[in-house]
Design goal:
The complex is a heterodimer of chains A (151) and B (628).
Chain A: E1 2-6, H1 16-24, E2 47-50, E3 56-59, H2 68-72, E4 78-80, E5 87-89, H3 99-103, E6 110-111, E7 119-120, H4 133-137, E8 143-147
Chain B: H1 16-23, H2 30-33, H3 42-46, E1 49-50, E2 58-59, H4 73-108, H5 116-126, H6 133-148, H7 158-162, H8 165-174, H9 181-191, H10 200-230, E3 236-240, E4 250-255, H11 263-268, H12 272-280, E5 286-291, H13 292-300, E6 309-314, H14 319-324, E7 330-333, H15 342-348, E8 352-355, E9 366-367, H16 375-393, E10 407-412, H17 416-422, H18 428-436, E11 441-446, H19 458-469, E12 472-477, H20 479-486, H21 500-509, E13 514-516, H22 523-537, E14 546-550, H23 556-567, E15 571-574, H24 584-597, E16 601-604, H25 608-625
Parallel strand pairs in B: 4-5, 4-7, 5-6, 7-8, 8-9, 11-12, 11-14, 12-13, 14-15, 15-16
Antiparallel strand pairs in B: 1-2, 3-10
Classes of the chains: A alpha+beta (151), B alpha/beta (628).
Enzyme class (chain B): oxidoreductase
Pfam family, one (chain B): Prismane
Protein name (chain B): Carbon monoxide dehydrogenase
Chain lengths: 151, 628
């Protein structure tokens, strides 16, 4: 399966990945020029954590081999797809219990800030044949996609 | 990838032979660097990255809708825009200041004026006189300089004399009449510094004000002052493209916008003793090869310089390729469009770089400052240095010419005066053609070439093709002209590409469907045409079926020019947004509300077909309002 890897030494905290994620998941079509950067509905699905001393850690969904979020989901809204190994979310089945949020050790499944009625998580840009937009947007190549074997 | 292979990743160009030439070069150009700069910062594109203070860079996101200081997206965007417009205005004001100073000094020294007609015209416009041409020129240049040096709180005198009265009235009502042009630049940069102005609309109005001073002085008056010293444009045919480089001569390429800095050198280069110097080292003499806007300026007035001027080789992003031919022996820089990318190429090919105005001091150029009093001495220094470079480099450098590139028979020398003369001394024939619908409308396609709007000249050329196919005649100025002519749209045969009605008009008159007014400074000439057309019909400028496009705008100067277009009330198309879309207020004012303020509006679209349709729609609306 494919996973996003990070090299925190390379991250400059430019948040270009953040804009790319917002653009990739916006509700209305358009270009990055008309992406509403103030609209909470366009929230990004990852976070860049600063240590306050000029170092940054990009935190992206691991699509874990044994995902705690999937284990915690009672309604079946979160599923690990057998062919890709990616954890995908079905909003229609979600009971909004946020057990997944509580169980993710990386803090990367989060309630959406706009409505608090669903969760936001990385879908690996499943509909984009070119793969995750965040990876393509990183000017430093601090994040990249690698094929890994899962036991 | 092979270390020496630079051809694997060049950007597209509307000029396919040029694209192939660049792809095959054994050295890197801007066209090669587009790919490695492909990742663009989303905050920067929208204009909401603020680096004005040490708290920054602050960026706008849903979680951080204000900068640390509290600046909103609207404040960040308009501050950044005002900074850019002030800087762009400053650039053009620098050009007009030097031009006026050179005219003034020539008058004092009782030098030569090649355009007496232009001098009379300026005297009439300004309402000044003099006992002879020298005194007249002195009074004209002083009138310009006095205005430029006024403080910001004193309005300039010539604005009312130069502007179309209905426009002047609008500007006065909006409170955007500019004070001293240099002081306006100063005021602009002060206003947008950290924690000063935070009113987006107030800053946008300042942009318009800077647009007026840029347009009237930097653009329009620079042309007219140049006409006095350098001679007025005359319609003629001329060659363009890399074909103009003749390796039998010592070739000098000039980059910039300040043609009056070369008057002395240009004259010297054809004098027998200097030609003899060239012959002594094995060349036939000297030639100036046109490049960037100063090359367009030479081409425009080429009728006066047939002996020294070889023709226009190409625009801003063609300059690296022109140098890479090895046929150029020296570059003289004096203003912008002098890409930093030419430096390593000049080093590699032993091309002598000389800078005559330190605003364009290149890292590896020798600085020989132009001062009017020392111009004689400096011309000799420059000539000797170039001859030495020629002797040194020619045996060592392999030429890589492209003699088949470009076109031989381009219509040039078009100005507001020469075009009117061509039409028989009045605008009536053109107005009649517009009224009858044989010409649906007029599009001014101006500005630069940038490399990311589809590639080098790609959007510009495609848009022009779409417009002429819709029977819209295109008038051009700036580096866009250089691209359009190198793609063959300014030869009379290009009439075949026009719509049936425009094609018939072109064939009857023997002209191409795209008329080249020359350098970006000549945007001022286009605006004189617009004014005179409006005057002849008895309407205001925004009522004309006329649109502007700076499809591939590149620089801060283009933004200042664009603000002039908006102040004139013209619809202004841009292929890429000017880093403002992060602000709802700026976008709303520029694209919508401006229509109620000045009559102008910004139209942003990066697709040639869609853009042409949008512009045609505006033209049709204006026609309908005029009941034609």
């Amino acid at each position: 399966m494919k996973r996003i890897f990070i090299d925190r030494e390379k991250c400059d905290g430019c948040k270009n990945c953040t804009v790319a994620c917002m653009q990739a998941h916006r509700a209305t079509p358009g270009t990055v020029y008309d992406l509403d950067l103030l609209d909470r509905k366009n929230e990004a699905r990852h976070t860049i954590v600063s240590d306050g001393k000029g170092r940054y850690t990009p935190v992206f969904c691991r699509h874990c081999a044994v995902p705690d979020c999937v284990g915690a989901c009672m309604s079946g809204a979160l599923k690990k797809e057998p062919d890709t190994g990616h954890v995908q979310y079905d909003e229609k089945r979600c009971g909004t219990c946020f057990m997944c949020v509580m169980s993710c050790p990386y803090g990367n499944v989060k309630p959406d800030k706009a409505t608090r009625s669903k969760i936001l998580k990385c879908d690996f840009c499943k509909d984009d044949p070119e793969g995750p937009n965040c990876v393509r947007a990183c000017p430093k190549k601090a994040i990249w996609v690698e094929e890994v074997e899962v036991l | 990838m092979n270390e020496s292979c630079y051809g694997c990743s060049t950007c597209a160009s509307a000029d396919k032979p040029l694209e192939g030439f660049i792809a095959g070069l054994p050295m890197e150009t801007s066209h090669h660097r587009v790919e490695s700069q492909e990742t663009k910062c989303g905050f920067g594109l929208q204009g909401v990255c603020c680096r004005l203070c040490a708290n920054g860079p602050c960026r706008i996101t849903p979680e951080s809708p204000r900068g640390i200081c509290g600046a909103t997206a609207d404040v960040m965007v308009t501050r950044n825009l005002l900074r850019a417009v002030a800087s762009g205005s400053g650039c053009y004001i620098h050009v007009v200041e030097n031009t006026a100073l050179n005219l003034r000094n020539t008058a004092i020294e009782k030098g030569k004026f090649k355009g007496p007609g232009a001098l009379e015209r300026l005297c009439k416009l300004f309402g000044v006189s003099g006992k002879d041409d020298y005194e007249k020129a002195l009074n004209v240049s002083n009138a310009v300089l006095n205005d430029l040096y006024k403080p910001e709180y004193v309005k300039m005198d010539l604005v009312e004399k130069m502007a179309y009265p209905p426009r002047f009235k609008v500007w006065k009502e909006l409170g955007i009449l500019p004070g001293g042009a240099k002081s306006e630049v100063f005021k602009g940069v002060v206003k947008c510094s950290t924690n000063l102005n935070s009113d987006p609309v107030n800053m946008l109005l300042d942009c318009l004000k800077l647009g007026i001073s840029t347009g009237i002085y930097g653009l329009t008056l620079t042309n007219l002052l140049n006409d006095v010293l350098l001679g007025e444009p005359e319609i003629r045919m001329a060659p363009v493209g890399l074909r103009v480089i003749d390796p039998d001569y010592i070739n000098i390429m000039i980059t910039g916008h300040q043609h009056t800095m070369f008057v002395h050198l240009q004259e010297r280069l054809t004098e027998p003793d200097v030609v003899a110097k060239a012959k002594a080292v094995g060349a036939k003499g000297f030639k100036l090869v046109g490049c960037t806007c100063v090359g367009q300026d030479l081409q425009l007035r080429g009728a006066h310089y047939t002996e020294i001027f070889d023709g226009h080789a190409g625009n801003n992003y063609t300059s690296e390729a022109i140098l890479a031919t090895g046929g150029i022996d020296a570059v003289i820089s004096e203003f912008n469009c002098t890409l930093p990318g030419i430096e390593p190429i000049c080093d590699e090919l032993l091309i002598k770089q000389i800078c005559v105005d330190d605003v364009a001091k290149k890292a590896n150029a020798e600085y020989v400052p132009f001062t009017f009093a020392d111009r004689g001495k400096q011309s000799e220094i420059i000539i000797d240095k170039i001859i030495a470079a020629y002797k040194e480099r020619r045996p060592k450098v392999k030429l890589n010419l492209l003699p088949e590139h470009g076109y031989e028979n381009n219509l040039t020398g078009v100005s507001e005066v020469s075009l009117k003369k061509f039409l028989g001394g009045s605008w009536k024939p053109l107005i009649d053609l517009i009224v009858s619908g044989d010409i649906k409308g007029v599009a001014g396609v101006v500005g630069c070439s940038s490399l990311v709007a589809g590639g080098h000249d790609v959007l510009t050329v495609a848009l022009v093709k779409e417009l002429i196919a819709k029977d819209i005649i295109v008038l051009t100025a700036g580096c866009s002209s250089g691209g359009i002519e190198n793609c063959g749209l300014m030869v009379p045969e290009a009439a075949e590409l026009a719509g049936p009605k425009l094609k018939a008009v072109c064939k009857k008159l023997g002209i191409p469907p795209v008329l080249n007014f020359g350098p970006c400074l000549a945007i001022g000439r286009l605006e004189i045409v617009a004014t005179e057309l409006a005057e002849a019909i008895g309407i205001d400028i925004p009522q004309l079926p006329l649109v502007l496009s700076a499809a591939q705008w590149l620089e801060e100067q283009a933004l200042a020019d664009g603000c002039f277009g908006l102040a004139l009330g013209l619809p202004l198309h841009l292929g890429l947004p000017p880093f403002v879309t992060g602000s709802k207020v700026a976008t709303q004012v520029l694209c919508q509300d401006m229509k109620a303020l000045t009559g102008g509006q910004v139209i942003i679209n990066g697709d040639a077909k869609e853009s042409a349709e949008l512009l045609e729609k505006v033209i049709l609306e204006k026609r309908a309002a005029l009941k034609i």
